[in-house]
Design a protein that fits this description.
Layout lengths: L3 E8 L3 E8 L23 E4 H8 L4 H6 L4 H6 L37 H11 L3 E6 L6
Parallel strand pairs: 2-4, 3-4
Antiparallel strand pairs: 1-2
């Protein structure tokens, strides 16, 4: 999706760090996730400084790892009650409140009803941290 990028960083200290990076755009600091602005979802995704990402891309992942927050698995497991219910629940004969959630082991047919949020949840299910970038990155 435009305004996002998947990155895999192999670090000698932290191992493999899988990311979905959401870049801000002119219309919103949330970029591709601007649809979650003002919703409970907005507070759940970590905002990370561009410099931290740049350092990680250049071999020093400590600042990035310190700002990642909960692991993707924990993120999905501790969603507040009522948040993340499948948008198909009203029309699905197999809907089950314990299974029809955006969890790693949940139903693969789960839908958020929002394309960007589905992208983010799909990344979390893959074990990727979803970060919203703040500030500029630098590169050499």
């Amino acid at each position: 999706m435009k305004g996002t990028r998947t990155i895999d960083i192999q670090d000698s200290r932290w191992g493999l760090i899988k990311l979905l990076v959401v870049y801000p755009d002119d219309g919103s600091p949330l970029g591709a996730l601007k649809g979650i602005a003002g919703t409970p979802w907005e507070k759940l995704f970590q905002k990370v400084q561009g410099a931290s990402l740049s350092h990680a891309l250049h071999g020093w992942a400590d600042p990035l790892v310190g700002s990642l927050g909960r692991s993707p698995e924990t993120f999905l497991r501790v969603l507040p009650a009522g948040l993340g219910e499948c948008s198909l629940k009203g029309n699905c004969i197999g809907w089950n409140p314990k299974l029809c959630r955006p969890s790693k082991g949940g139903n693969p047919c789960w839908e958020a009803g929002d394309e960007a949020l589905e992208l983010a949840i799909g990344a979390l299910r893959e074990g990727r941290y979803v970060i919203i970038l703040e500030g500029a990155e630098f590169s050499l």
